[in-house]
Amino acid sequence: MSGSLGGKRALVTGGDSGIGAAVSLALAVAGADVAIVYNRDEVAAAEVVKGIEANGAKGLSVQANVAEVGDVDRLFETVASEWAPLDILVCSAGIDGHAALSWEGDPEAWLTVIKVNLFGTYLCARKALAQMVEQKSGVVINISSVHEVIPWTGFSAYTASKAGMSMMTKTMAQEAAEHGVRVLAVGPGAIQTPINQNVWGDPVGLKDLLDKIPFGRMGTPEEIGRLVAVLASDDASYVTGTTVFADGGMTLFPGFRHGG
């Protein structure tokens, strides 16, 4: 993949940690200059920028809350002032919220997950697509989840946001295709990041999780990063309007592997 994105400029939301950080570094390894968006952790963002620059690419970090219209407008103005219009947008910012059954949860907490995951992705994709449609090229990649198709008890807001992202991605792809712009999603399964350490750090929780993955292991952020870099490149120039799952087989419903 080295050099496959040479001369490209990318923006990654949630690029200061987890999957977003791995995606940012993978894009830099492939030759792209990368601007990352962080909400709170400026120190972590600075470390990712160092990693981007260590790979010979230009790096930039910008603070923004992707769920706020004004923040997103300012974000894109800042990036535009630093370099030419974007070639790649990766929407990775997201939260899963607190576990609660649908009839017991707090409506405001539920709405917050929707605003960050779905509305935030819309706001960023909207700005990027306006540029890309005008220049007749570009790629938007939304980081979805296996939970756009797999229910998850206690997390109805998260599953709703990712299912909504799936159809929004398809619709945006349909709208942008005639302008030479691709829009697609990546659906990670169980990826080992700090956000889910409470599961993989507990032997009982880890065993239960691995039983749901035919490969028998969790994925790594780097595996998702490399996949995104391929999908952002011309090697995937005929791919649009779909979710590419990277889940070790989780969406194969492994409970049925020995029959129904």
Give a quick set of tags describing it.
260 residues; alpha/beta; 7-stranded parallel sheet; 43% helix; 15% strand
Structure description:
With 260 residues, the chain is of the alpha/beta class. Helix content is 43%, strand content 15%. The chain contains 8 helices and 7 strands; from the N terminus they run E-H-E-H-E-H-E-H-E-H-E-H-H-H-E. It has helices at residues 18-29, 42-54, 69-82, 107-135, 156-176, 197-200, 203-210, 221-232; strands at residues 9-13, 33-38, 59-63, 88-91, 138-143, 181-188, 243-246. A 7-stranded parallel beta sheet has the order 3-2-1-4-5-6-7, with helices on both faces. Helix 1 (18-29) packs parallel to helix 2 (42-54), helix 1 crosses helix 8 (221-232) and helix 4 runs parallel beside helix 5. The chain is globular and about 50 Å long. The model has no long low-confidence stretch (mean pLDDT 95).
